[in-house]
Design goal:
The chain has 247 residues and is of the alpha/beta class. 25% of the residues lie in helices and 19% in strands. The protein is built from seven helices and eleven strands. It is globular.
């Protein structure tokens, strides 16, 4: 309740949230360790990456093509801003939108992303953002996502990526929470991905498209929606499956 109240101090024009239509002269600051200016929508709690992803979803994916084209979607660790939009979009076909989390009471199902209790090829699409950096075995989680996607299905897998780092770094011998926060960005992060993140996705059989989607927006849109420069990682399960994946 405090966030919308604080948002009253930002009333004005200049920013607009593409998810909820909220207009403010700028968005609220937000950050786990370091505060980012112009980050949080005070109405729906969307952050920069959520606004950028939403623009891609409604403009580039089948989610934006009307009710008849809505894919069967698994939304893991559902972000509130996106979940509210999807519930409205899928109102006429609620069984085609499934939310899942390890513990959250907001989710339909509860399970570990490393062991997904769902059938092979059950989903057309998966959204799983800022989860892989938390799990013990991210490659196992990726194999599970690959398994439940139908051939030709797609997924969005965003994670914090340090583009200045060539290789992903992980070290479970570092146990001090403050030290882990300093090195990994959060005390509960198990790794910090480098430029090899896309290759890590490909290792599990996915086709990967790295998109600097913000560059496709006009300068006016970038300012209006206050999007960040985070890359989108759109992955697809190939129609043809190589035998080596199951050996």
């Amino acid at each position: 309740w405090a966030v919308p109240l604080l948002g009253l101090f930002y009333i004005g024009k200049g920013r607009e949230c593409p998810l909820c239509g909220c207009r403010r002269r700028k968005f609220l600051p937000y950050g786990y360790v370091t505060q980012r200016e112009d980050a949080l929508c005070p109405n729906c709690l969307a952050l920069e990456r959520h606004r950028l992803l939403w623009l891609w979803l409604i403009r580039e994916s089948d989610i934006g093509r009307g009710a008849m084209a809505l894919p069967k979607l698994l939304h893991a660790a559902p972000e509130v801003a996106l979940m509210r939009k999807f519930h409205k979009m899928y109102a006429s076909v609620p069984d085609r939108y499934v939310t899942a989390d390890l513990e959250s009471p907001l989710a339909d199902m509860h399970f570990d992303i490393q062991q997904i209790p769902l059938a092979d090829g059950e989903f057309d699409a998966v959204i799983c953002n800022h989860i892989l950096e938390h799990v013990e075995d991210d490659r196992q989680a990726l194999r599970e996502i690959f398994r439940i996607l139908r051939p030709g299905g797609w997924a969005v897998l965003l994670s914090p990526v340090d583009l200045g780092r060539e290789h992903t770094f992980e070290d479970d011998t570092i146990t001090d929470p403050e030290q882990r926060t300093r090195i990994f960005g959060q005390y509960d992060h198990r790794r910090i991905y480098g430029r090899d993140y896309a290759d890590r996705l490909r290792e599990c059989g996915f086709e990967v498209e790295e998109i600097e989607y913000e560059k496709r927006l006009s300068e006016e849109e970038r300012k209006q929606y206050a999007t960040a420069g985070e890359r989108l990682y759109i992955i697809r399960r190939p129609l043809a499956i190589s035998r080596w994946l199951f050996q």
